[in-house]
Design brief:
Blueprint (H helix, E strand, L loop, with lengths): L5 E6 L5 H13 L3 E6 L9 H8 L18 H7 L2 E7 L1 H9 L5 H8 L3 E6 L3 H5 L1 H12 L3 E2 L4 E3 L5 E3 L5 H18 L2
Parallel strand pairs: 1-2, 1-3, 3-4, 4-5
Antiparallel strand pairs: 6-7
Helix pairs in contact: 1-2, 1-8, 3-5, 4-7
The chain binds flavin mononucleotide.
Flavin mononucleotide (FMN) binds next to α4.
């Protein structure tokens, strides 16, 4: 079902970024073409080398290279993708997406994307239940984005509650289901 599908993955600076490596591996195994955009903070949690190796494509972060002036087109990335998954999505990036704050490649690409966007929030229980985050996720949902539930469990902080990123296998299943439903509906 995922063969030849072009999937863009946005990785932000949350502790669950290591799980996104598994998502990429599973998608590539299923035949998807995967490109990865990382925020600067995401690079503190998992290396671009890991993500580039697993996705078989260079990882994108910068708008342009100051050395040679080459630049990454968020418009092209946004129109290239059949699906854009942001996993993990931090409270910070969720807030910026909800408000159209376009200060990095991930968010300019989000604003340019014509495809369905799936967002996998991941943060501490109190950050997730804060009114600001609840409101921002509601705004993103109202834009037509699909918010993946952040299940309950033990969190990296030591607290217990909602905020874990969905498991990689579950996220890949949601993506596969989306494409199979799309195939059924399309003429
Ligand atoms: C060890 C550590 C773990 C963090 N984990 C999370 C997290 O799981 N979710 C979250 O929303 N923010 C988390 N943060 C805070 C983000 O890294 C911070 O808000 C950052 O500005 C996010 O930037 P980005 O959204 O551009 O990637 C963590 C910070 C540290 C130092």
């Amino acid at each position: 079902m995922l063969k030849g599908k072009r999937i863009l993955i946005g990785v932000t600076g949350g502790i669950a970024a290591y799980k996104t490596a598994t998502i990429i591996r599973l998608l590539v195994k299923e035949g998807a073409e995967v490109k990865v955009i990382m925020t600067e903070h995401a690079k503190a949690f998992i290396t671009p080398l890991t993500m580039a190796t697993l996705s078989k494509n260079p990882v994108l972060t910068e708008f342009f290279s100051p050395e040679n002036g080459s630049w990454n087109s968020h418009i092209e990335l946004g129109t290239w993708a059949d699906l854009f998954l942001i996993a993990p999505a931090t409270a910070n990036t969720i807030a910026k997406m909800a408000n159209g704050v376009a200060d990095n490649l991930l968010i300019t690409t989000y604003l340019s994307a014509r495809c369905k966007v799936f967002i996998a929030p991941s943060m501490d229980v109190d950050m997730l239940s804060h009114e600001a985050t609840v409101r921002n996720l509601g705004i993103l949902k109202s834009y037509g984005n699909h918010i993946l539930d952040a299940p309950s469990g033990e969190l990296a902080s030591g607290l217990t509650g909602k905020g874990r990123m969905s498991e990689p296998e579950d996220i890949v299943k949601v993506i596969s289901d989306y494409f199979s439903k799309k195939k059924t509906i399309s003429p």
